[in-house]
Amino acid sequence: MLLALTIFIATLVFVIWQPKGLGIGWSALGGAMVALLLGVVQWADVIVVWDIVWDATFTFVALIIISLILDEAGFFSWAALHIARWGGGRGPLLMPLIVLLGALIAAFFANDGAALLLTPIVIAILARLDFSPAASLALVIATGFIADTASLPLIISNLVNIVSANYFDVSFGRYAAVMVPVDLISIATTLLVLWLAFGRKMPRRYDVAALDEPTSAIVDGQIFRAAPPILGALLLAYFVLAQWRVPVSLITGAGAVTLMIIAGRWGQRKEAVILLGPVIRGAPWQIVLFSIGMYLVVYGLGQSGLTHYGATVLEWLGQQGQFVATLGTGFLSALVASVMNNMPSTLVGALAIDQAQVPDLTRELMVYANVIGNDLGPKFTPIGSLATLLWLHVLAGKGYHISWGQYMKVGLMLTPPVLLAALAALAFWLPALAGA
């Protein structure tokens, strides 16, 4: 186990460090090769791990391609400008409106899309409105925070959700039935804690006339008109095709290809408005290598004894009742994610839950609590997720320098109440749903 732990720590250091030319994917794959050469994992384990991660990985890539195309078409800028106008010049109303927009984007385009695409747009709008640095930073933090706390409702809302749903064979409809109400509680609590923390920093008024017209943000009219029906058809397909166990990646991939055909004007005698080359190159292809590499390293760590220790802890929690088991699993997953990164933490939790001897309903509560913990746990520390590290890098490029100490101070203040509220909602809602 010491050897497996050493390989994992070294791999995680390289993933976070990201030496030039290496990237997260090659760093993780390098750790996996070391684990294979030293016998921590076997070649047969590669097939097991690939079976766990392939659908989630390619779903995530397809979602980001969809998000990037819509972003290039001006879809998110158009929505953000509308939101700013709906505020009617009232500063205190702008924060909840931006938070709700972030929650909506996170639900359909994953937490990474919400944080990385919406944040630059919000910064640009705030610059036009001449907000104070303190108010601007508060809204930027709110945008990044809601991206994770609102990434619970659908399987596609977070890579963590996809991995967990596939591992435990949870259908799209069942997952939504459990987690949509929990997500609403999470969003409401997020709004409350953000307002308590930053509400006084908001200006009383802002100049709506300083904003551009929303229509000025539209770059590709064809994509803009096609997006709503395509997204609606995608959502319907997720629910309908789930009964035949159609992989989520195939459905999402079909949506991405459809948008690419429209954006590239394939089969039309018109010149494309959006350059698809940069969009495709901008997709997170490194995540494919990262998924197989990091999960293989973590799988070896689990096989070396970590899974057994985790299962023992979960069995003890299961003996304390459903409420304690839910909160305990969620907070334990969140703490592990904050130091281990939420992607490997998700697999560790899933393997431990699978091995733990607990009643069926308690097991189901633990499955969803593990998702909640790994969705929200990354907000405790900057290394909790790769998206957070990239988000901080994007902010630094825009002139917003947030140190790790500042980030953790905010994360430790805001995250626990939201995590507690979401887990408590799950503990009450799932047994009620099961008994209905």
The first-to-last residue Cα distance is 44 Å
Reported for the largest beta sheet, the result is: none
Based on CA atoms alone, the radius of gyration comes out at: 21 Å
Per DSSP, the total helix count is: 17
Number of DSSP-assigned strands: 0
- Beta strand %: under 5%
Mean pLDDT: 91
Number of structural domains: 1
Helix content: over 70%
Judging from the principal axes of the Cα atoms, what is the shape? globular
- Category from helices, strands and their pairing: mainly alpha
SSE topology string: HHHHHHHHHHHHHHHHH
Low-confidence runs of at least 5 consecutive residues: none
Concise synopsis of the structure shown:
This protein has helices at residues 2-17, 23-37, 43-72, 75-86, 91-129, 133-149, 159-167, 172-198, 221-241, 248-263, 276-282, 286-318, 322-340, 342-355, 360-376, 386-397, 404-435.
Question: Please, could you describe this protein's structure?
Answer:
This protein has one domain. It is globular and about 60 Å long. The mean pLDDT is 91. The chain has 17 helices and no strands. The longest helix has 39 residues. The protein has 436 residues and is mostly helical.
What's the structural blueprint in terms of helices and strands?
Elements: H1 2-17, H2 23-37, H3 43-72, H4 75-86, H5 91-129, H6 133-149, H7 159-167, H8 172-198, H9 221-241, H10 248-263, H11 276-282, H12 286-318, H13 322-340, H14 342-355, H15 360-376, H16 386-397, H17 404-435
